[in-house]
Design goal:
Blueprint: H1 7-21, H2 26-33, H3 37-45, H4 52-62, H5 67-70, E1 89-90, E2 94-104, E3 107-116, E4 119-122, E5 128-142, E6 145-149, E7 154-158, E8 163-181
């Protein structure tokens, strides 16, 4: 993202583009996302204050990867994302910096710098979620399974399952990857597999 373009501006342009491509009115998107029409209007005008929860709701409702809403197109063979140039998207207990969406064919990998401050719950979303803890201790609950991770530890799971991140020793810094393929939908998800 360019230093002079905020996450609000990028979200506004992308949200309007995706919504109109889906032939959805603001009222229709409001019904699907359970976000008020006035709030959606503010987001599309760049005046809103988006949270992680809002962006995830829009992603689910529009059935697009989060990067479709937060990424700017990148050109050339080298992409550099400076920490100071990426605005933090805040949630109840997590701060995310969207670094890059990488599309290859029908596959998208979204790369985030994640800081878990307290507790963040997700009802589930399309794709596979991967996290590598860089600092702190992180408790991850996926469905009925719970695991605690430390620096260097990895977890991966079907993101359609409800999941929770909790900072045990925090704040916890991690790299978060979301992997999507065409046709990924929230719905009946398989049970999580936990390796020792």
């Amino acid at each position: 993202m360019e230093a002079d373009e905020s996450v609000r501006d990028v979200l506004a342009a992308n949200l309007r583009r995706v919504r109109t491509a889906r032939n959805l009115s603001l009222s229709g998107l409001s019904r699907l996302s359970k976000i008020g029409k006035a709030t959606l209007s503010q987001l599309e005008s760049g005046a809103g204050n988006p949270t992680i929860e809002t962006v995830f709701s829009l992603s689910r409702a529009l059935e697009v990867p989060i990067s479709s809403l937060l990424d700017q197109p990148h050109g050339g063979g080298l992409t550099v994302v400076r920490a100071a140039d990426v605005e933090v998207l805040r949630g109840d207990g997590v701060d995310l910096r969207a670094l890059r969406g990488i599309a290859t064919g029908d596959t998208v990998v979204e790369v985030y710098d994640q800081q878990v401050r307290s507790r963040q719950e997700s009802p589930g979303h399309a794709g596979t979620e991967h996290a590598v803890v860089q600092a702190g201790r992180l408790r991850v609950r996926v469905g009925d399974h719970e695991v605690e991770l430390g620096p260097g530890d990895y977890v991966g799971f079907d993101a359609r399952l409800s999941h929770t991140y909790v900072a045990v020793e925090g704040p916890v810094r991690s790299v978060l990857l979301l992997h999507h393929t065409a046709g990924d939908r929230v719905g009946d998800a398989p049970r999580p597999h936990v390796a020792g």
